[in-house]
Specification:
43% of the residues lie in helices and 17% in strands. With 188 residues, the chain is an alpha+beta fold. α2 packs antiparallel against α4. The N terminus is likely disordered.
Length: 188
């Protein structure tokens, strides 16, 4: 076997094998796995040791995956009868750098979700959030739109498909819990 072919095979199969040995879904492959920390190419792990700071880990991965400070911004996840929305705003109205980063990220999230790509929330939460598999399967039945907010941006998620809507609601409820936003988990 030629060296270049061997290197190509190693590049494809070794990361896949590493993912198959981990206890999380790898955002790069979308594959679920079993337990060894740091096997995913992105280095995510599911530590379960006492004293593990899950909220801190979510915030650190969130900052890395979203490209802006989690401390200088506020997230909201709102459920509506036809889906819901993800909103991020700056805490300081004069923080134009974070405002630009939020709008860029939220517009990018709209594009990714519309394409069935949920790798950023999978990376941030170190697991596949509830609802994602159905949202991927039903992507053609879900609308994603972007809106500027005075201090940030919003992705509006809408559908008339009952299964897709339930999946969106499950996804948003998970986000509310994980980010500790205190947003209502009931449809408004």
């Amino acid at each position: 076997m030629e060296r270049s072919t061997l290197l190509l095979l190693m590049a494809v199969f070794i990361p896949a094998a590493a993912v198959a040995e981990t206890g999380h879904d790898c955002p790069l492959s979308g594959k679920a796995a079993s337990g060894a920390p740091h096997s995913c190419p992105l280095g995510a792990s599911k530590a379960s040791a006492k004293g593990h700071d899950h909220a801190g880990d979510v915030a650190r991965r969130g900052e890395k995956g979203m490209g802006f400070s989690q401390e200088r911004t506020t997230h909201h996840f709102l459920l509506t009868p036809d889906g819901g929305s993800i909103e991020v705003t700056v805490n300081d109205p004069g923080d134009s750098a974070s405002l630009g980063q939020i709008r860029t990220h939220i517009a990018h999230i709209r594009e990714m979700f519309a394409a069935g790509d949920f790798s950023i929330p999978i990376f941030v939460h170190d697991t596949t959030p509830p609802g994602v598999s159905t949202m991927k399967r039903r992507a053609s039945a879900i609308g994603f739109s972007y809106e500027d907010l005075p201090g940030g941006g919003r992705v509006v998620i809408s559908t008339s498909d009952a299964d897709a809507r339930d999946a969106v609601h499950d996804f948003l409820r998970f986000q509310i819990q994980e980010h500790g936003t205190g947003d209502p988990t009931a449809v408004r």
